[in-house]
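For the sake of transparency, this paper describes our internal protein records without simplification. An entry from our holdings is shown next, in its original layout:
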Amino acid sequence: VQLQASGGGLVQAGGSLSLSCAASGSGFSIAAGGWYRQAPGKQRELVAVITSDGSTNYADFVKGRFTISRDNAKNTVYLQMNSLKPEDTAVYYCYAVVTGIPYPFWGQGTQVTVSS
């Protein structure tokens, strides 16, 4: 299983970006997926997660601004980010937990930069 993240970029404060994380391969199903982020000099932190039944959980600092979703047919997890703030600037990493495999898969990071 390989994860390909895309959609990062530069946006002004208050703007929006949409991230995608597509899983490639065959014969698997994603049990849960989500996004972490890591800002310079800071630890990686959980942003949002979505489970196989569509349940979601968000970090407090993104609640009401970010929305995580998934398309099971495409094995893709999305992160819609609205009302972006400069403190959202970070490298965003997607991950996926695949049914039957006891470790997560990670995508490459995608840079999100929010200017003030």
